[in-house]
Amino acid sequence: MKAQGVFLDKNLVKIVEIEVDKPGKNEVLIETKACGICMGDVYVFQGKLPSGGVMGHEGVGIVAEIGECVKNVKCGDKVAALGGPAFAEYYKTESQNVVKIPGYVDEDALVYWISEPLACVVTGIKGSDIRVGDNICIIGCGYMGLLLIQTMPKNLINNLIAIDIRNDRLELAKKFGAEYVINPKEKDAIKEVHDILNGKADIVIEASGAPGTIDLATEIVRSGGKLVIFGRHVIDEKVPTEKWHVKGLTILNTTPAFSTNFNKDFYDAVNLLRKGMVDQKPLITHRFPYEKAQEAFEIASEKPSNYIKGALTF
Q1: Contact of 222 with 199, CB cutoff 8 Å
Q2: N or C: the chain end with fewer CB closer than 10 Å?
Q3: Exposed, middle or buried by CB within 10 Å (0-12, 13-18, 19+), for 132?
Q4: Sequential DSSP letters for the chain
Q5: What is the reported pLDDT for 87?
């Protein structure tokens, strides 16, 4: 069958016609209702990563057809899915990548069940090896940082500190459970963390991907502590390996490839949404019909003050 898809290149988005085959064995055909705009997609639009053609991997939709041996979903089920290309009206993925969304969820609200980013957060939480009594600092309160704050096991840890240069996002961080917030444009973040903890953090999670934040993370984590690189630094940076050596830090790079079972993390992410433990409504701030994808990527690239996360709808 033929379907409309969103083709990405540097500073250019085109609507193109693609061919989508019928689902084969253990495959599911999904009618896309929404797909989140990932920063990786934005980097392609900005020319920082090579064109991926029709992309998208944060899809939610309705099962249109199933292949042989598929048992976990049936036609008509509302689902979150891994795989792609999900910037298209229809796409296929393996059945193990598909998880049902409760049937009571309105189609208009499916966008809040985008789950692949939350699966990355689940990987990050598991991979950070958080222990009872830890003092934790998260640098970056964008979409992913705010998901991290929501999923943090707050009943186990001592203090949770959030750092960001935007006060509106720090307000959301407080709403989601950060006990302390710091704007490094207004205060000395290193001194503030020291004053709060009477020392340094056991774990610092760098979730912004912004240049220089790894240096800040290095300064506020204690000797023998863990520095978690969660944000994507798409342009290589010089990192303070000498300080890492002297401080005896454990450096963790909790990307999806870090996970021992990303599908399990994905299932766990959907379950967090099912239990109401994560609220994406304040985070997915912009929706665009796929026909306006050029505008969507321009806005996602510029990140105006009211933008946290965007999605294309189909």
Answers
A1: yes
A2: N
A3: exposed
A4: -EEEEEEEETTEEEEEEEE-PPP-TTEEEEEEEEEE--HHHHHHHTTSS---EE----EEEEEEEE-TT--S--TT-EEEE--S--SBSEEEEEGGGEEEPPTTS-GGGGGGG--HHHHHHHHHHHHTT--TT-EEEEE--SHHHHHHHHHS-TTT-SEEEEE-S-HHHHHHHHHTT-SEEE-TTTS-HHHHHHHHHTS-EEEEEE-S--TTHHHHHHHHEEEEEEEEE-S---S-----HHHHHHHTPEEE--SGGG-S-HHHHHHHHHHHHHTT----TTTEEEEEEGGGHHHHHHHHHH--TT-SEEEEE-
A5: 98
Superfamily covering domain 120-257: NAD(P)-binding Rossmann-like Domain (3.40.50.720)
**pLDDT over 90 at 88, yes or no:** yes
Q: Where in the chain is the domain with CATH 3.40.50.720?
A: 120-257
Contact assessment for residue 220 and residue 193, using Cβ atoms and an 8 Å cutoff? yes
Picking from 183, 122, 130, 120, the residue whose alpha carbon sits closest to that of residue 156 is 130
Dump pLDDT digits (tens) for 238-288: 999 999 999 999 999 999 999 999 999 999 999 999 999 999 999 999 999
Average pLDDT over residues 87-106: 97
**Residue 302: its pLDDT value, please?**
96
Provide Rg for the chain, Cα atoms. 20
Whether 52 has a pLDDT exceeding 90, the answer reads no
Task: Domain 2-114+280-313: state its class.
Answer: alpha beta
Other CB atoms within 10 A of residue 285 CB: 15
User: What does the alpha-carbon distance between residue 311 and residue 243 come to, in Å, rounded to a whole number?
Assistant: 40
